């Protein structure tokens, strides 16, 4: 699987991340996120994967490059590596998982936790 972004895009992202790190380093009074930063890659959109199966295979390929195991649970396939307060992840949510969530959420407007009027 190849990455569909031109090399120039990758180089710019890396330069921009370094620019952000330099800015934060030079300005110690700027707040930073309490729980860190996550870079998320979604193979269906960020790579040449054209099917769900190809996207899942791409998560597995990324996991191998990161030296981590792929986690697959409830229709989510994730490869995740932590670098302290910074993490990198690749994620695919299957269509079946999205369909289950949409079905469950379709009842959301029919349920109320408020007591009935007059009770």
Task: Give a verbal description of the structure.
The protein is of the alpha+beta class and 119 residues long. It has a domain of 75 residues. The chain contains 4 helices and 4 strands. A 4-stranded mixed β-sheet has the order 1-4-3-2. The longest helix has 20 residues.
Strand and helix map with partners:
Layout: H1 7-26, E1 37-41, H2 43-46, H3 52-66, E2 71-73, E3 76-83, E4 86-93, H4 95-105
Parallel strand pairs: 1-4
Antiparallel strand pairs: 2-3, 3-4
List descriptors.
about 120 residues, alpha+beta, 4-stranded mixed sheet, 4 strands
As a percent range, the share of strand residues is 15-25%
Structural class: alpha+beta
Describe the strand arrangement of the main beta sheet, using strand numbers.
1-4-3-2
Shape: extended
pLDDT averaged residue by residue: 90
Distance between the termini: 61 Å
Order of helices and strands: HEHHEEEH
Biggest β-sheet: count, sense, barrel?
4 strands, mixed
- Low-confidence spans: none
The beta-strand count equals 4
Helical content (DSSP H or I, runs of 4+): 40-55%
């Amino acid at each position: 699987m190849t990455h569909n972004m031109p090399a120039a895009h990758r180089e710019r992202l890396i330069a921009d991340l370094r620019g952000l790190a330099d800015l934060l380093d030079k300005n110690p009074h700027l707040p930073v996120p309490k729980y860190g930063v996550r870079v998320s890659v979604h193979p269906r959109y960020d790579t040449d994967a054209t099917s769900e199966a190809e996207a899942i295979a791409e998560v597995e390929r990324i996991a191998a490059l990161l030296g981590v195991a792929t986690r697959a649970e409830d229709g989510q396939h994730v490869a995740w590596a932590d670098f302290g307060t910074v993490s990198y992840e690749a994620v695919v949510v299957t269509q079946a998982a999205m369909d289950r969530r949409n079905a469950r959420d379709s009842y959301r407007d029919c349920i109320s936790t408020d007591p009935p009027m007059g009770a």
